[in-house]
Amino acid sequence: MTDETRGKGGEPRQQTTDRDRTMTTAQGGPISDDQNSLTAGPRGPVLMEDHVFREKMFHFDHERIPERVVHARGYGVHGHFELKEAIPELSAADIFQRVGEKTPTFTRFSTVAGNKGSFDLARDVRGFATKFYTKEGNWDLVGNNIPVFFIQDAMKFPDLVHSVKAAPDRGFPQAQSAHDNFWDFISLSPEAIHMTLWQMSDRAIPRSFRFMEGFGVHTFRLVNAEGKSHYVKFHWKPKQGLQSVVWNEALKINGADPDFHRRDMWDAIDAGDFPQWDLGIQVFDDEFADNFEFDILDATKLIPEEQVPVRIIGTLTLDANVDNFFAETEQVAFCTQNIVRGIDHTNDPLLQGRNFSYLDTQLKRLGGPNFTHIPINAPKCPFHNFQQDGHMAMHNPKGRVNYEPNSWGEDGNPRENPEIGFKSYPEEVSGTKQRVRSETFADHYSQARQFYISQTKIEQQHIAAGYTFELSKCQEEPIRLRVLSHLMNVHDDLAKQVAEGLGVTQMPEPATPAREPITDLPPSDALSILKNGPDSFAGRKLGLYLTDGAEAAVVEALEKAFADEGAMVAIVTPHIQGVTLSDGSTRAADEKIDGGPSVVFDAVALVFSDDASGKIAKNKPSQDFVSDAYAHNKFIAWTKAAEPLLKAAGADDMDGGMMEVSPDNATDFAKTCRKLRFWEREE
Ligand code: HDD
């Protein structure tokens, strides 16, 4: 008899029942008692011969593997990529040939700096790594939610990471860049300034993994069947639109729900609301590269979409949660070197260094060269070679042939195939062997300025506030001033706001640029979050705070309006037992008020009975619920009985983000929420 439970890739997971369900040791021996060790007498010493105890404890003692040296905290999800536009003229990659074909994928989102057990809403870059199990091998696109990087040469990566992670003497701060070591390194590495603008912007505090973009960062090559090459940059565009939180909200979410992002992804997929991203490519040739203001091999630069439009060629749908976090999310091993025929690397020195580091790190993390045998890492296409043995070898070929060339027959005897085998693009290279940074990498401020001027006023304020917060955590004044000296080369307005925030009255001398910045690059709307928000409230969550006796007609109208919008509604109540509404119907609670603060919702509605009105206005968590929603510019709907609470929470300035709700206008409220935030309140 078998139980079929959820499995990945179509194969059901088999679970045996009846006698076969008997607990056994790893050797398969049935266990009679898993509660008590073997002792000499009921109160006597434990016997060494207790093999059941020893095996259990031995295995437990070895459960942990080293966490990733960066991107330790992550969350993985299965999905598939569907090709919408074939590009054989650009690439011979099998995955890009047949429109409508679906390729299985595994995507892991992550923060960078924090340990595995850190919180989700750190101000940090997010990893966005996707493994495509193509018919011609695995292709890993190991990107971030920011299109540029801190450094230009992989040689500096250990320094960058050391500087941002906990200081070696004290072992803190955890999962944050707001400290002297990080800003010391940054202020001495002007190439990093552009990326810090992104990092201080709301891009580094996304509302959800579902609401952020992804970027392959580097320039790669696409190579077609005739061997012709084009350059390419890869983009992920969320169909859900972009959305971030505000910093004060991020701080509070970390306390309320440190797992906010992973829970959000799990819940959305569990509810069948599958997030999707379009895969876009920016394709360009040598002529463009030669005329572009910056070096296309410099990972601290992007190519504005206005200069090279993003062409959408397919869609990624994430549609299945993992069955086992360790087996899948923890053991997945991404390597930038995993590319397939039709895609190739360029000479970007950051990318070339990564190609060594990822393979190397998997050896340490997963314990041996056979990590490709672990199901999440194994290709889903046939694979044959003469690699053998090593720790935990799971694919062990039969027969005597294990070398090439050989003169044995065809059976189980793999051969090279020049027709479909991977060939590197035959780029001509020559040069003097030396350690030098190319002159063409020397402009550090122009794109930082372009990013700043592309933002809305609110977003610019947030960037300035981000720098002010982080630098205020730096105890060393010279470090603060050195960062300021770089910001003066980016934009006067930004430098002034930060100086004011820090209380600096005497501005430092601007840093000496390695190359004079270009100050007339045009703004690029694609760089702003607020200019690229969604056009509906779909995928977002309303926090509906109810008391006993709340008017049922209003509750039903709100539930319907938000369901029609494709949004979720979470019921918040004074007690976890839920509430009984005016018509006697009941609502189960998703959260008790102190466990469900408004920071975990995108908009809130307060529907109270007259009886509850006075008492709830005095309740502290209820006051916080409202005052936070108000301070974070959220849309708030309420019924009359909630007015005393609004007053007590200081949210009684009836601006355009507030709406008294009735059965007749619940739909209007849901539509208003499409704007996500009432930013005018902050202005
Ligand atoms: Fe990296 C992990 C993304 C530069 C070395 N990196 C890692 C992950 C992502 C990125 C998303 C997590 C993968 C997962 O979920 O398992 N890294 C980037 C991007 C970079 C970048 C977009 C710049 C464009 N990384 C970078 C450099 C080096 C590394 C320059 C070293 C030379 N990265 C690693 C690593 C990690 C890693 C140490 C840690 C765990 C792992 O690889 O599997 O090898």
TrEMBL record:
Its EC number is 1.11.1.6. Heme binds at R68, R108, F157, R354, Y358, R365. GO terms for molecular function: catalase activity; heme binding; metal ion binding. The lineage of its organism: Bacteria, Pseudomonadati, Pseudomonadota, Alphaproteobacteria, Rhodobacterales. PROSITE patterns: CATALASE_1 (PS00437), CATALASE_2 (PS00438), CATALASE_3 (PS51402). InterPro entries: Catalase (IPR018028), Catalase_AS (IPR024708), Catalase_clade2 (IPR024712), Catalase_clade2_helical (IPR043156), Catalase_core (IPR011614), Catalase_haem_BS (IPR002226), Catalase_immune_responsive (IPR010582), Catalase_large_C (IPR041399). One of its GO terms (cellular component) is cytosol. This is Catalase. Its cofactor is heme. Residues 24-412 form the Catalase core domain.
